[in-house]
Design goal:
Helices cover 38% and strands 23% of the residues. It has 16 helices and 19 strands. Helix 1 packs parallel to helix 4, helix 2 crosses helix 11 and helix 13 crosses helix 15. A hairpin with a 5-residue loop joins strand 15 and strand 16. It has 461 residues and is of the alpha/beta class. It has three domains: 227 residues, FAD/NAD(P)-binding domain; 94 residues, D-Amino Acid Oxidase, Chain A, domain 2; 81 residues, no CATH class. Strands 6-5-14-15-16-13-17 form a seven-stranded mixed beta sheet. It has a six-stranded mixed beta sheet with strand order 8-2-1-12-19-18, sandwiched between helices. It has a three-stranded antiparallel beta sheet with strand order 3-7-4. Bound molecules: flavin-adenine dinucleotide (FAD). The site of flavin-adenine dinucleotide has 31 residues, from helix 1, strand 3, strand 9 and helix 11.
Length: 461
């Protein structure tokens, strides 16, 4: 790694657009390069204004997101607000007792429920604490003008102004204006594949004594074929619940009667816990789900995109934010590796990340099927049991796909390829009991380090 100072501010101010997880994290990394960083965020400061209208919305945090949080020194604060989940609690229809499917047998194989708002607040505090990051809230980017090196901004009151930039980092989410500017400058292109399913978030309130109504240390799933409900616990005793369903199902749920009937039929045990279900359903927004595939993530040495702006994915592997933060770390590494040449750093960053984010985009789509129907399918359960069993016997050769994605930092594309090879062998072994599966697994190349968190000190930048 070179000790040369990154030439980030060669052409003018260093700007990050968007202060979500990717933008806030990136501004901390950029401040470490020794430059002042200006951040524009279109929404109000979530540390001061309740932007989720009183609901607490949470995400699953896993190893790829934890590593950068260790890097930038906020992991202890984040640790204090997370709830570990050790497996999926499957609420099959008509079964009185839900079944826990553990994610793995190792202690570190847990994922963590974390409030989106609280995590963001920690990152924003840490960014400001660098003394180099200035964040302007309620200021939206409208347009990037590369010829004049001006950003066209609009504040919450509708007033427009311009601000100079040297290099602009687009961390402005799935609808990124920076991505649009890169495409308009002829350097990139993108498209979104929309799913035929939407989602809606609901809240399962705490019990009267403030405790959780379900086991907080599991990710609850009600798999129903085309439909699925999931629930993740919050430290306050409530759960954030998400219904995923075809658009036509949402369209049919236009009245209190229809909503109550639907939940009573499909999710009776869950519905019994939420007296104001229909009211919440009517009040809360319905969101679309899509996969954004972009190529050409940068324009010369002037602009680059990161996080959902470059690779928004469907949420079924719980990896969008984790991937976004892993991409931020990768971008930082490439900036340090090519300090005198931003265009090269940006190109190398995309070359490294693009095949991997394409892989997680595909695996996330595949995991929807697994979650909403696979987990109660006999073949899936047998395959999963065999994978976990083989992992015990060949820990350096086999790890289930879910575990490689969630608990390691091996490149997503490698995890995808490896999982396909393993699935093929397990499929053969299940249909042919005579097959010497142990001999075949032993021939697989060694897996990389599957527990990068075992020695967090080794991760520090
Ligand atoms: C239902 C659901 C569940 C999910 N669950 C998980 C999960 O369990 N685990 C996981 O890892 N991921 C999950 N994700 C994905 C995760 O939310 C995203 O991948 C992650 O938030 C991306 O972070 P980001 O910073 O790139 O983008 P965002 O969080 O979208 O942040 C972009 C920021 O830019 C701002 N902005 C936008 N446009 C402008 C503009 N023009 N000017 C200025 N500012 C602008 C926005 O206000 C926002 O603050 C889930 C997503 C959904 C929809």
């Amino acid at each position: 790694m070179s000790a040369e100072r990154t030439k980030l501010d060669e052409h003018g101010p260093v700007v990050v657009v968007g202060a979500g997880q990717a933008g806030a994290l990136l501004s901390i990394y950029l401040a470490r390069h020794g430059h002042d960083v200006k951040v524009y965020e279109s929404r109000p400061d979530l540390r001061r204004v309740d932007i989720d209208a009183g609901r607490s919305i949470n995400l699953a945090l896993a190893t790829r997101g934890i590593v950068p949080l260790i890097d930038v020194g906020v992991i202890d604060r984040v640790d204090a607000i997370t709830i570990p989940m050790r497996g999926r609690m499957v609420h099959a229809i008509g079964e009185a007792t839900p079944q826990l499917q553990r994610y793995g047998s190792k202690e570190h194989e847990v994922i963590h429920s974390v409030s989106r708002t609280d995590l963001n607040a920690i990152l924003l505090d840490a960014a400001e604490a660098t003394g180099r990051v200035t964040i302007e809230f309620d200021v939206a980017l409208n347009k990037v003008d590369f010829d004049t090196s001006l950003l066209h901004l609009r504040d919450a009151g509708g007033d427009e102004r311009t601000a100079p930039f040297g290099v602009v980092f687009g961390a402005d989410g799935a609808g990124s204006r920076v991505r649009k500017a890169i495409a308009e400058a002829g350097s990139g292109s993108y498209e979104t594949e929309w799913l035929d399913h939407d989602y809606k978030e609901l809240t399962l309130a705490p019990a009267d004594d403030g405790s959780h109504r379900l086991d907080p240390h599991a990710l609850h799933i009600w798999p129903r074929g085309e439909l699925m409900v999931i629930a993740l616990a919050n430290p306050e005793g409530d759960f954030t619940v998400t219904l995923f369903a075809p658009k036509k199902t949402f369209a049919a749920l236009g009245s209190t009667e229809a909503i109550n009937e639907f939940f009573a039929e499909q999710f009776a045990d869950f519905a019994a816990l939420v007296p104001d279900l229909a009211e919440q359903f009517m009040e809360n927004p319905t969101g679309p789900l899509g996969t954004l595939r972009a190529t050409g993530w940068s324009h010369q040495d002037r602009a680059v995109i990161v996080g959902d702006a470059a690779h928004a994915i469907v949420p079924f592997h719980g990896q969008g934010m984790n991937a976004a933060m892993e991409s931020v770390r990768s971008l930082d590494r490439h900036l340090r590796d090519s300090p005198g040449d931003l265009a090269t750093a940006f190109a190398n960053y995309e070359a490294e990340r693009k095949p991997n984010v394409d892989a997680i985009a595909d695996m996330a789509l595949g995991n929807y099927i697994e979650m909403r129907s696979g987990v109660i399918d006999e073949d899936y359960v047998a395959r999963r049991a065999m994978a976990l069993d083989l992992e015990q016997r060949h820990p350096g050769q086999l790890s289930p796909r879910y575990n490689m994605v969630m608990f390691s930092t091996m490149p997503y594309a490698d995890a995808q390829q490896r999982a396909a090879a393993q699935a093929e062998l397990i499929g053969r072994a299940l249909s042919d009991p005579e097959l010497d599966i142990d001999a075949l697994i032993a021939e697989l190349p060694d897996l990389p380090n599957l527990d990068p968190l075992a020695d967090p000190k080794a991760l520090s930048v």
